[in-house]
Amino acid sequence: MSKGSSDLKKNNNNLKNEKDIYKVNPNDSESALKGYQQNSKHTVQKDRKQVVSFTKEQLATKPLYSPAPDKWIKKGGTVKIDEDGVWVYTNKKGQTVGYPGGYPDFTEFSHPTVKPVEVEFANPTNRPLDYKNSNIKAGLSKDSDPPVASLYEAPEGYTWHHHQDGRTMILVDKKIHREFTHTGGISVVNRK
């Protein structure tokens, strides 16, 4: 074990465990971080003041296809598991998505005027057909606000998210939907 890894372990043993985040006193962290090696199980955030460690048991509860915690943190984000066991990811811009029940909650990033709609998801998967049915049900067209270039596409800057209930489509910010990776309604329907 490297000196840094042993210092980190020693520091972590003296800290309060907040379920998933071990906070290091910034005054004590420098010696531990100097000898830190990448092959340890710890990840150091950019600000070098917080060490994050997930146990095997915690990682076993990670939502399917959600971002890998170590990669997410290296990109400047944070990951926590709240008191209800919900994984919560925050990107470097401060945008947060929780995964209650293992699925993303995009409510905060849904379109402000287009309400969720219920459609029958295509099986086998046919996203353009699901988009068409959702656009029609939501009353979207070339002349609506927001407009759609084609019934087979979501409005610019948005995508239709297949909710895990297997019938609800939610218009959400396209970049957020892509960044906060997940399993969702398509997977649920395909398993039936």
TrEMBL record:
<dbReference type="InterPro" id="IPR032869">
    <property type="entry name" value="WHH_dom_containing"/>
</dbReference>
<dbReference type="Pfam" id="PF14414">
    <property type="entry name" value="WHH"/>
</dbReference>
<protein>
    <recommendedName>
        <fullName>RHS-family protein</fullName>
    </recommendedName>
</protein>
<feature type="compositionally biased region" description="Polar residues">
    <location>
        <begin position="26"/>
        <end position="42"/>
    </location>
</feature>
<feature type="compositionally biased region" description="Basic and acidic residues">
    <location>
        <begin position="1"/>
        <end position="22"/>
    </location>
</feature>
<feature type="region of interest" description="Disordered">
    <location>
        <begin position="1"/>
        <end position="48"/>
    </location>
</feature>
